[in-house]
């Protein structure tokens, strides 16, 4: 219960920190004798701030005299009659002993960010510092610490993962007439970045076991015009980086790793993102580490680091303010976003561990569903991470049954990405796609995120899937 309790002498800021940690949108307020004297929601605090209260105002200034609570021993009907979001339960001395929560229908979104660390603390610090744009200490801290986490020398933060990819291509002087090899199974941002750079994408097939880009198909697709390869560590699974880096070395090609869905994944005990000339990360709201929107390019090259920074910052000279050496872009991350990312990074190993735990739960519960297969997690040299939980089910009718059962339980699911080669705007760039076409139609992504731990009855609900025939 401690995660719900605030003291009536606490500030609005302190109460918001309590609410942020319990993830229930409410705090129970007690007096000096630990007796319940009020209930405050996140909505109450928002309204107070709109009414010109300050973050350092005491919460007893906004508490209402009438609030809902239940006594120990009250019936379920009595609790339901009075239930308002979440209701504290007290003994006859008004001491809090439990709480009651009622949800008419549970809904489990496909993903939800983990914001129970120092996110709010650092966000508030950045806000109060007045550095809310691209300048500020959190941008530097986030770039420095994230690049260190991946084991790269430099980190150049960007406004999102797509701009990170585009920035990498520009820094490597990929241009019109150049070819860039991309996998067929990926989000469209990968190929769009190539097209934005006015280069020609070459779509190649994936490996059957890993679902990542196939080195064999890369080799077949290389021409005299090929300048770069973008391996995508799809759904948290590392690519075969030895083979890809060897091909790049032999053919004098650049490698831009797309690590959007694989923060912390490893190949031969090295984190993905540590192999390529430039590696690109996304910090969109559905990623393992999020800043809401955001991205980062990592490199070991002094030259590429400096070039990306100039291109990212309008092409402006680093030594002569408002002097532009090249045509650039505004691809910068804000200090406020970086503050959230810095807090996220502090607990990334715990987040990864929690996500792995829930994937294990899915594997345990769904293993008896006939024909279901999970993403490989024992491939040689590869240590995947859990972004979402991908499964494949070859029987289309049974896939629909599974989706409907998930929906009936309030569990959101999503199909795999459509292969790029299926879409009219990209199909002309296809080199090979046999395996990606086979896989995509039978793939499903299941929700997983750290805060799923509060839904302790999900396991029992999922066991019902075991009777699917």
List key phrases describing it.
single chain; flat; alpha/beta; CBS-domain; Aspartate Aminotransferase, domain 1; four-stranded antiparallel beta sheet; Aspartate Aminotransferase, domain 2; seven-stranded mixed beta sheet
Provide the CATH topology of the largest domain.
Aspartate Aminotransferase, domain 2
Strand content: 15-25%
Q: Total number of β-strand segments? A: 20
Count of distinct structural domains: 3
End-to-end separation: 43 Å
Approximate helicity band: 25-40%
The CATH H-level superfamily of the largest domain is Type I PLP-dependent aspartate aminotransferase-like (Major domain)
Overall mean pLDDT score?
91
- Described by its quaternary structure, the protein is single chain
Describe this structure in words.
There is one protein chain. This protein is of the alpha/beta class and 469 residues long. The chain folds into three domains: 2-101, CBS-domain; 119-346, Aspartate Aminotransferase, domain 2 (3-Layer(aba) Sandwich); 348-467, Aspartate Aminotransferase, domain 1. 33% of the residues lie in helices and 17% in strands. The protein contains 15 helices and 20 strands. A seven-stranded mixed β-sheet has the order 7-15-14-11-10-8-9, with helices on both faces. Strands 16-18-20-19 form a four-stranded antiparallel β-sheet. Helix 4 (119-129) packs antiparallel against helix 11 and helix 5 (137-150) runs parallel beside helix 11. The longest helix has 19 residues, at 348-366. The model has no long low-confidence stretch (mean pLDDT 91).
């Amino acid at each position: 219960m401690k995660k719900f309790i605030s003291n009536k002498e606490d500030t609005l800021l302190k109460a918001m920190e309590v609410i942020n940690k319990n993830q229930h949108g409410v705090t129970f307020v007690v007096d000096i004798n630990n007796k319940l004297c009020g209930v405050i929601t996140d909505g109450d605090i928002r309204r107070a701030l709109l009414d010109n209260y300050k973050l350092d105002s005491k919460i007893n200034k906004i508490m209402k005299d009438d609030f809902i609570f239940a006594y120990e021993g009250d019936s379920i009907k009595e609790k339901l009659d009075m239930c308002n979001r979440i209701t504290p339960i007290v003994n006859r001395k008004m001491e809090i002993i439990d709480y009651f929560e009622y949800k008419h229908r549970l809904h489990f979104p496909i993903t939800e960010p983990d914001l129970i660390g120092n996110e709010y603390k650092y966000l508030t610090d950045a806000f109060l510092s007045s550095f809310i744009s691209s300048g500020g200490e959190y941008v530097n801290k986030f770039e420095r610490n994230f690049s260190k986490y991946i084991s790269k020398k430099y980190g150049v933060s960007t406004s999102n993962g797509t701009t990170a990819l585009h920035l990498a291509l520009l820094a490597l002087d990929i241009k019109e007439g150049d070819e860039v090899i991309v996998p067929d199974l990926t989000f469209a941002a990968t190929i769009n970045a190539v097209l934005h750079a006015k280069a020609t994408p070459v779509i190649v097939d994936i490996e059957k076991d890993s679902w990542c880009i196939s080195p064999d198909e890369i080799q077949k697709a290389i021409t005299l015009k090929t300048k770069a390869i973008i391996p995508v560590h799809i759904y948290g699974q590392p690519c075969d980086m030895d083979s890809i880096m060897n091909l790049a070395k032999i053919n004098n090609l650049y490698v831009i790793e797309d690590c959007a869905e694989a923060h912390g994944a490893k190949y031969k005990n090295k984190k993905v993102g540590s192999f390529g000339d430039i590696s690109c990360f996304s910090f969109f709201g559905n990623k393992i580490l999020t800043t809401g929107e955001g991205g980062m390019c990592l490199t070991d090259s002094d030259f590429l680091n400096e070039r990306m920074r100039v291109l990212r910052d309008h092409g402006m000279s680093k030594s002569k303010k408002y002097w532009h050496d090249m045509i650039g872009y505004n691809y910068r991350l804000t200090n406020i976003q970086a503050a959230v990312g810095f807090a996220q990074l502090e607990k990334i190993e715990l987040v990864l561990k929690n996500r792995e735990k829930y994937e294990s739960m899915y594997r345990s519960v769904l293993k008896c569903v006939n024909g279901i297969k999970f993403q490989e997690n024992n491939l040689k040299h590869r240590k995947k991470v859990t972004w979402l939980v991908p499964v494949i089910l070859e029987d289309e009718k049974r896939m629909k049954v599974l989706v409907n059962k998930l929906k009936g339980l309030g569990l959101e699911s999503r199909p795999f990405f459509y292969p790029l080669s299926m879409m009219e705007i990209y199909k002309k760039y296809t080199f090979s796609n046999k395996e990606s076409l086979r896989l995509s139609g039978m793939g499903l992504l299941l929700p997983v995120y750290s805060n799923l731990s509060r839904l302790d009855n999900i396991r029992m609900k999922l066991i019902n899937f075991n009777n699917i025939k």
